[in-house]
């Protein structure tokens, strides 16, 4: 089972080299077949050049250079269009994610789950340098979503998640252009009733550079995506109900057909048994006469 690690990157020259080295080290140690796709989202620094140097020593690393307009969601969509693995994990270039959690995700998928959602807010997780205001907003948004979608998952806005490729194909195409794609992807899998595991993860605040997530600008985009997915949930619920009714009807028909076949076989067996008894009686009579 091949793993595709998808890394959107914008002006991450101080992080991307170490980020790739850590991922390589962990996945090789665990003997996990992988590809790493770095999507360079119109960086103006040396991000692309550093990735190209890495490619010289590891053919499993690939670079996708995007043209304008930029956007985290656009970068994710570009990467998803070229992945070749059976499992896709979105990974941040700023080293905020823990590469060891890649293995945790992969093993959960091996257990049979369709998706794995990491949470920074359940027992066993570890978080460092999370700005207080962003954490406050995060908790409000995720609490609202828990009630809107009646779900136990409490970190749906986090991009660091794992999906089987067929889940992405089923839930797509995606339309979000910015960080709201994290909602579109996670909620898309959730409302389609895929088998999802939640595990605690480690998260470390950015140590170099500036975050590209601006809450004020993203508020409207998050809200529009949230409403879109809520109404999509209602429509999908109707479809799922219709499919379940059809499935139940087909199941009843199958059981009825099976019952008829069993009854027919029992009738044939009875007929053969009676025929055999007659033959035995006739043989017995002939033997007596002789």
From TrEMBL:
**Domain of life here?**
Bacteria
Which CDD domains does the entry link to?
DPM_DPG-synthase_like (cd04179)
Against Pfam families, the record matches this protein to: Glycos_transf_2 (PF00535)
Gene3D superfamilies membership = Spore Coat Polysaccharide Biosynthesis Protein SpsA, Chain A
Query: Which residue numbers delimit the Glycosyltransferase 2-like domain?
Result: 4-170
Q: Which UniProt keywords apply?
A: Coiled coil, Glycosyltransferase, Transferase
Q: Name one GO biological process term.
A: dolichol-linked oligosaccharide biosynthetic process
Instruction: Write down the InterPro entries for this protein, in alphabetical order.
Output: DPM1-like, Glyco_trans_2-like, Nucleotide-diphossugar_trans
List, alphabetically, the GO terms of the cellular component aspect: membrane
Q: Which residues form a coiled coil?
A: 248-282
Gene Ontology molecular function: any one: dolichyl-phosphate beta-D-mannosyltransferase activity
What family does this belong to?
Belongs to the glycosyltransferase 2 family.
Identify this protein by name: Cell wall biosynthesis glycosyltransferase
Give the source species. Gimesia maris
